[in-house]
Structures are given as C-alpha cells and as structure tokens.
Amino acid sequence: MTVSYDSLLSCQSLRVAIMGAGNVGRTLAQRIVEKDLADVVLLDVVEGLPQGIALDLMEAQGLEYHNCEVVGTNNYEETANADLVVITAGRARTPGISRDDLLAINAKIVADVAEKAYKYSPNAIFMVITNPLDVMTYLTRKVTGLPPQRVMGMAGVLDSSRLQTFIAMELGISTANVTAMVLGGHGDLMVPLPNYCTVNGIPITELLDSQTINRLMERTRNGGAEVVKLLKTGGAYYAPASAASVMIESILRDQSRLLPTAAYLQGEYGLNDIYIGVPCFLGCRGVKKILELKLSDAEQEALHISANSVRKNVHFALESVGFK
Ligand SMILES: NC(=O)C1=CN([C@@H]2O[C@H](COP(=O)(O)OP(=O)(O)OC[C@H]3O[C@@H](n4cnc5c(N)ncnc54)[C@H](O)[C@@H]3O)[C@@H](O)[C@H]2O)C=CC1
Ligand SMILES: CC(=O)C(=O)O
C-alpha cells in the first residue's frame, strides 16, 4: 500500500502574517499556534531572525500537539493571502530617543510595512500593536485605504487585563472573578472605568474604597513603564501577546467577544475621524459593532482629552511620512 504523506498533514486554512519577529511578534506567534488558531508567517528585516524563530517554534510542534505551521521570512511575497496581518514592527523607546523621534521613526516603519503587507494581502484584517498605538493604527488605515472595520489596534485588552490583575491581587482572589474595562488612548491618558469593573457582577466600588481604586488605576496607567523599569532592556510582551491572541481568536472564530479595541470613531462618544480604545464586538468582519457605554461627565471629558492628545500626534505622524 502506498500512502501520500502530504495528504496526512492537517491543512490549516487560516493564515496570520506577523510583521516584526521581536519579543511581541514571536510570543504572539507562539500563542497563535499553541491555541491552534492559524498558520503563522513571521516577517522581519533582520535576516535569519524570523527563520530561526519559526524553526524553533516548529521544533516544539510535536511537543505542544498543534497542527499549525510557522514560516519565517524577509520577503513580503511569502506573507501573501493572509487572513489577518499583525503589525509589531518598530522601535521601542530607549534612552536618548525622544517621544517625537520615536513617533517619526515608527511612522515610517509602519507606513512601509502596512503598504507592503496590504499589497500581498488586500483582503486581510489588519491589527496594529506598534506604539504609539492609536496613531499607528490611524496611519495603517490611511496607508491601506481599508474600510475602518478591517483596521484596529490592540491596547485596551492589555490595559484592562492589567487592571483586572491588580484588582485580583488587591482582593487576594483569582483574576477569573474579575472583569475590568479601560478605554481611551494607550498611554498616560487612558481612561479606566471603575463602574464597569466587577467581581462576579459586583461593582468594585462596593468592595474597594476610592483611594485604593485610584491607586490601582494609576498603576494601570503606568503598567507598561513598570515592566520596562524592571526589565531595563525592553518592554512587556507576554501580556501584550496574550491580549492580541484573544482578539485574534475572536476574529478568526467569529466569537463576537466584546473587547476594548482601538477602533475608528465616526461620531461615537462624540468623536470623529480618530482611532481610540472603545468597547467593540470583534468577529469575522473585524470590528462588527462599537458599543457606546454610558459614561460619567468626568469619564467623557477624560476620553476627549485622551483623543486630543492622539489627534495631535496623528498630524505629526502623517506629516512625517509625507501625507498632507
Ligand atoms: N499596543 C500595545 O499594547 C503594545 C505595544 N508594543 C509595541 O510593539 C512594538 C514591538 O515591541 P517588541 O516586540 O517588544 O519590540 P522588539 O524590538 O523586540 O521587536 C521589534 C521588531 O521589529 C523589527 N522591525 C523593525 N523595523 C522593521 C521593518 N521595517 N520591517 C519589519 N520588521 C521590522 C525589528 O527587527 C524587531 O525584530 C513596539 O513599538 C512596542 O512599543 C509592545 C507591547 C504592547
Ligand atoms: C509597551 C507597551 O505599550 C505596554 O507595555 O503597555
């Protein structure tokens, strides 16, 4: 009897292209294949890097019992026909590089990566992770010209997960009991919503005093910086990769989970022509629906202050890559 071994291999029909094989990109690749979500193509400018990471991940395939393939490349053609493109390519902040310098550097990288990725995967949904997140997501949509539902940014799930963790740690309970919601831009001006944070449905405002809640919200705002200070050589990547993988799972499996996502606003929350974190149902079409929560006056004002800061940086980023 002859057997065609090709026919015995599982055929994964879904494909995620991850641009940037650094800490976030490679950890996300690991999360995706270990959840059996999709095949992954990892692309980076550094020769050998994505190929090495891909080989290493493939050598764990038999131990982790998944059927997804990982390929590493420096060539955009190999990323073709992705269902989802994730952009993690870029620089992280280091001593001597100002925020403005970083904005200009990453704007150039993201504009270039988005344009090339779109050329080979014009039907993909795009998810941006590179910082400054809300600005890079706006830029990606501008460069690709895609409908807004198909371009989104990851940050709110991470920020909410950090707040969820800090609430659970404070109360000495499992995070499984806790839900948390953080909206707004990914930065110092993010907007945690204590009224939408619960322990099995009980608002945290009934379990913690306002001073404690304020302390946990402040720690969340500084969540990224706290990890950088400890690591010294880079930023967080385990929780960011987990956050992105939850969004990706909701999209690829059409779960319509409600997740805080940097989405394009067209009047929602009184904001127009801007990407910022708001609760969205994510599914096979990308952002299926933006949910407009009832906010207090102070929360609404905080969201607008956060949006103004994003808007200023959007203008700067667009100019730095030659958009009028
Ligand atoms: N949105 C969020 O919540 C989060 C955002 N980030 C951001 O994600 C980005 C990546 O972070 P890490 O993976 O930790 O950084 P990293 O430095 O480990 O990886 C970045 C990778 O991008 C690659 N790269 C640079 N230019 C490229 C280009 N033109 N084409 C393809 N690849 C290119 C680099 O070679 C490097 O391998 C940073 O901007 C970081 O600030 C990180 C964590 C959370
Ligand atoms: C790097 C980053 O954006 C974060 O850890 O929140």
Automatic annotation (TrEMBL):
One of its GO terms (biological process) is tricarboxylic acid cycle. Transmembrane segments: none annotated. GO terms for molecular function: L-lactate dehydrogenase (NAD+) activity; L-malate dehydrogenase (NAD+) activity. It is an enzyme of class 1 (oxidoreductase). NAD(+) binds at G20, A21, G22, N23, V24, G25, D44, N106, I129, T130, N131. Keywords: NAD, Oxidoreductase, Tricarboxylic acid cycle. The keyword Oxidoreductase applies. The keyword NAD applies. Gene3D superfamilies: Lactate dehydrogenase/glycoside hydrolase, family 4, C-terminal, NAD(P)-binding Rossmann-like Domain. Its EC number is 1.1.1.37. The active site is at H186. CDD domains: LDH-like_MDH (cd01339). Residues 158-316 form the Lactate/malate dehydrogenase C-terminal domain. Residues 15-153 form the Lactate/malate dehydrogenase N-terminal domain. InterPro entries: L-lactate/malate_DH, Lactate/malate_DH_C, Lactate/malate_DH_N, Lactate_DH/Glyco_Ohase_4_C, Malate_DH_type3, NAD(P)-bd_dom_sf. Substrate binds at R93, R99, N131, R162. It catalyses: (S)-lactate + NAD(+) = pyruvate + NADH + H(+); (S)-malate + NAD(+) = oxaloacetate + NADH + H(+). Belongs to the LDH/MDH superfamily. LDH family. PANTHER family: L-2-HYDROXYCARBOXYLATE DEHYDROGENASE (NAD(P)(+)), L-LACTATE DEHYDROGENASE. Catalyzes the reversible oxidation of malate to oxaloacetate. This is Malate dehydrogenase. The lineage of its organism: Bacteria, Bacillati, Cyanobacteriota, Cyanophyceae, Oscillatoriophycideae. The gene is mdh.
